[in-house]
């Protein structure tokens, strides 16, 4: 398991196992508007700007070339060969198991444990994308070493990088929500804030920590912090969190698991609590590869293709709650290997 | 209670008022009720001629107020237009809104500058009017406006997010909808809030400024849609003569806005090299992106701010030369955007993110517009050399005599040399007093193919 595939195995995969019918419909329709890229030697996708008029052409190509890796663009173009006349791009969240900031295994690449943690993170992000942002047409792809969330909702496909980056920060909980809310009228507030006091000392401000607000972004943030505190093992590196604080967090984390946030904050102390959530918000930014989310012209591993480095199938996941890559994404040739 | 249509003229109430009072036959006639309302609300007007006496007048004043405030703020005197922000004129204001909207839709169409300025003017009026109302009144009218609008999806406000006027985190979202009304909030989240009064939490978390910003933007979008609809239908019905008549006056008022941009420019367009002139007149799809983003952006910014960069070899930031970025934003970017819009197809239509790349090439990172806080996140890109242009943008490179001179090896050295040539020629023309038509002062004409 997780061994590279030989050239012969790649060939076997694309001639015997690869099935055109398994290509997801969202790739198949308008396939002619996407750019394809291939890695033939295992040194990165150098063979780019390829275009296929239909899936049969793609099939022929894969059978003849059985590439090390196959990719296609998240963007749709009128002239995909030159990446010209951009039409729209999927919105992507890329969760790679080997890069997730809090993992309980200490494997080198990926293993069963971190793959399952990546799956859990994807499931959390999906909830927010649906419940808060109301997005539809969302597809989850198992990439071989993690997951891609690919969103083809027509309301987001034309959004620029700036908006995509805001969505990313929202769904992963990458910023500590503000905790001061004004309770007085805006005109008076402006007066106090500008003329009389410095902003944070102005009267009429209500202090409300994120866990007291059970809706909107603060609620998302609370869930992400709870996940982080529950899953951390004490070796995570955060500038704001020293070993003593880390020890106390682990000691009292049961309170967080029982949603007793006030008690937990009391035990930790308000300043150290602030440091902790600040540190976690920065870790959260690493849950997803931000470069991928803001890049409108990126190419991504193509579903149904073979991830040759680990001998796993890249494939669409129908049910993220029950998906087990070790059962469903292992190509036939792996089980035929000696000593499997 | 303040009329809802004072803020949202497209509300059912607004449409009702127009149906009852909006006969276009009388809009040119003096309207005693209107004059009375204006006089009562404006206190003392310096100039009695400034009082709108009929509904057409009022429409034009609406637009004029906005244009003056935006394009000549120093001479602008809000007191001259006090009545526009007084709820007493609400009924007349609605009718004047529809006069303007229809005239603009029919005569200029939805994509026109007139349309855009009109929509902006309504945004300005909404802001000012809310400000003038008492807290209680403004809160109440905003709630009623929200009730009169359809569901607001966050995806409809992507402009506000990309310009950073709004952050996704500030909104309360449920299933893609932005929760703005207290009733809806209570229904969805009321029983989740413990130990606190949900109404207080609503008031604290959903801030009035944010709500006002969203409401304003949705109304502006609805006006946009209304103009599109009227424009589409106008081919079927013959427009009323009063509407055609007012359109010319609208153009005149908006002229003020355009003049200023040209006056401020000190770029000498006659000295631009052929490749730049060709880029400015619009590029076909092949070379389009590179021509605008790489060639034109770097050329215009250096030509305007720092033409001697290659001589000095002392690299600077844009803000070293344009401290408040006024020149960059008011002069350089509009020229680049205009050229981008002249491309076929228009650059930002199918490649909206190229706006971000233009900002990046000016040294302000990947954002919609240059902002001081982002300066240095990328490099201020210097103009490419003639050799590079010849290879990558060959269709734009049509060398003339100046291009072939010895020290001309990039568009900027062309510009410097040509400015000097033009000056020399102008001087000698003056001293000889010759009138040789071959020695034209306008190289653009010599250049035409
Ligand atoms: Zn692992």
Please tell me about this protein's structure.
The complex is a heterodimer of chains A (340) and B (449). Chain A is built from 13 helices and 14 strands. Chain A has helices spanning 7-17, 25-28, 55-65, 112-131, 161-172, 186-196, 216-231, 243-257, 261-268, 270-284, 290-294, 325-328, 332-335, and strands spanning 36-39, 47-50, 69-73, 75-79, 84-89, 91-96, 138-142, 146-151, 180-182, 205-207, 299-301, 306-307, 312-313, 315-317. In chain A, the strands form five sheets. Chain A has a four-stranded antiparallel β-sheet with strand order 2-1-3-11, with no helix packed on it. In chain A, strands 6-8-7-14 form a four-stranded antiparallel β-sheet. In chain A, 40% of the residues are buried. Residues 191-202 of chain A have low confidence and may be disordered. Chain B is globular. The model of chain B is unreliable at 259-265 and 434-449 (pLDDT under 50). A two-stranded antiparallel sheet of chain B has the order 1-2. In chain B, strand 1 and strand 2 (177-178) form a beta hairpin. The interface between A and B is large, with 41 and 45 residues. Zinc ion is lined by residues 105, 107, 110-111, 113-114 of chain A.
């Amino acid at each position: 398991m997780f061994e590279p595939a030989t050239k012969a195995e790649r060939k076997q995969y694309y001639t015997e196992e690869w099935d055109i019918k398994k290509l997801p419909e969202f790739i198949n329709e308008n396939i002619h508007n996407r750019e394809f890229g291939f890695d033939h030697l295992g040194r990165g996708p150098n063979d780019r700007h390829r275009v296929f008029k239909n899936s049969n052409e793609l099939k022929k190509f894969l059978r003849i070339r059985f590439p090390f890796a196959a990719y296609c663009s998240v963007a749709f173009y009128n002239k995909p060969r030159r990446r010209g006349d951009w039409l729209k791009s999927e919105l992507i969240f890329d969760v790679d198991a080997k890069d997730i900031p809090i993992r309980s295994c200490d494997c080198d690449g990926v293993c069963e444990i971190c793959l399952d943690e990546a799956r859990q993170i994807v499931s959390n992000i999906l909830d927010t994308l649906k419940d808060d942002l109301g997005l539809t047409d969302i597809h989850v792809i198992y990439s071989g070493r993690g997951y891609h969330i690919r969103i083809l909702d027509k309301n987001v496909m034309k959004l620029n990088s700036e908006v995509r980056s805001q969505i990313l920060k929202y769904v992963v909980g990458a910023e500590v929500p503000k905790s001061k809310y004004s309770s007085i009228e805006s005109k008076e507030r402006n007066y106090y804030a500008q003329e009389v006091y410095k902003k944070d000392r102005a009267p009429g401000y209500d202090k409300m920590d994120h866990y007291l607000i059970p809706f909107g972004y603060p609620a998302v943030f609370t869930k992400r912090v709870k996940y982080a505190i529950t899953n951390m093992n004490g070796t995570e590196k955060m500038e704001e969190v020293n070993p003593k604080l880390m020890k106390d967090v682990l000691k009292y984390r049961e309170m967080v698991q029982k949603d007793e946030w006030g008690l937990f904050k009391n035990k930790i102390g308000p300043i150290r609590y602030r440091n902790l959530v600040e540190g976690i918000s920065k870790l959260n930014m690493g849950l997803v590869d931000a470069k991928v989310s803001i890049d409108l012209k990126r190419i991504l591993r193509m579903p149904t293709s073979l991830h040759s480095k680990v001998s796993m199938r890249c494939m669409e996941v129908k049910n993220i709650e029950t998906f087990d890559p070790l059962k469903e994404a292992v190509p036939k040739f792996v089980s035929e290997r000696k000593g499997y | 209670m303040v009329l809802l249509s004072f803020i949202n003229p497209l509300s059912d109430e607004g449409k009702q008022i127009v149906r009852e009072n909006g006969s276009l036959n009388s809009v040119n006639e003096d309207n005693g009720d209107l004059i009375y309302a204006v006089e009562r609300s404006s206190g003392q007007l310096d100039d009695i001629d400034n009082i709108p006496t009929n509904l057409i007048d009022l429409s034009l004043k609406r637009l004029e107020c906005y244009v003056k405030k935006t394009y000549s703020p120093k001479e602008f005197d809000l007191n001259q237009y006090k009545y526009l922000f007084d709820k007493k004129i609400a009924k007349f204001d609605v009718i004047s809104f529809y006069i303007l909207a229809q005239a603009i839709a029919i005569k200029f169409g939805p994509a026109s500058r007139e349309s855009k300025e009109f929509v902006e003017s309504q945004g300005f009026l909404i802001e000012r009017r809310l400000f003038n109302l008492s807290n209680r009144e403004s809160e109440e009218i905003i709630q009623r406006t929200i009730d009169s609008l359809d569901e607001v999806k966050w995806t409809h406000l992507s402009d506000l997010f990309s310009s950073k006027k709004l952050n996704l985190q500030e909104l309360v979202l449920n299933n893609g909808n932005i929760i703005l009304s207290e009733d809806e909030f209570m229904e969805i989240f009321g029983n989740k809030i413990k130990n606190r009064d949900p109404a207080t939490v609503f008031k604290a978390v959903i801030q009035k400024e944010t709500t006002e910003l969203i409401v304003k933007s949705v109304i502006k979008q609805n006006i946009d849609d209304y103009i599109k609809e009227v424009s589409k239908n106008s081919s079927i019905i013959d427009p009323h003569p009063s509407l055609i008549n007012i359109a010319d006056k609208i153009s005149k008022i908006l002229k003020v806005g355009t003049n200023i941009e040209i006056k401020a420019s000190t770029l000498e367009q006659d000295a631009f090299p052929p490749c730049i002139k060709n880029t400015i007149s619009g590029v076909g799809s092949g070379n389009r992106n590179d021509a605008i983003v790489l060639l034109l952006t770097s050329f215009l910014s250096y030509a305007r701010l720092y033409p001697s960069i290659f001589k000095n070899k002392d690299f600077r930031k844009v803000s070293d030369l344009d401290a408040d970025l006024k020149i960059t934003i008011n002069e350089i970017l509009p020229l680049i955007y205009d050229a981008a819009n002249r491309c076929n197809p228009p650059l930002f239509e199918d490649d909206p993110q190229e706006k971000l790349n233009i900002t990046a090439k000016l040294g302000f990172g990947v954002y919609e517009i240059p902002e001081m806080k982002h300066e240095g996140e990328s490099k201020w890109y210097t103009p490419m050399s003639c050799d590079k242009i010849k290879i990558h943008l060959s269709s734009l490179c049509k060398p003339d005599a100046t291009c072939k001179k010895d020290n001309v090896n990039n568009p900027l050295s062309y510009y410097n040399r040509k400015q000097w040539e033009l000056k020399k020629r102008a001087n000698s023309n003056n001293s000889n007093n010759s009138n040789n038509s071959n020695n034209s002062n306008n190289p653009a004409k010599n250049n035409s193919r």
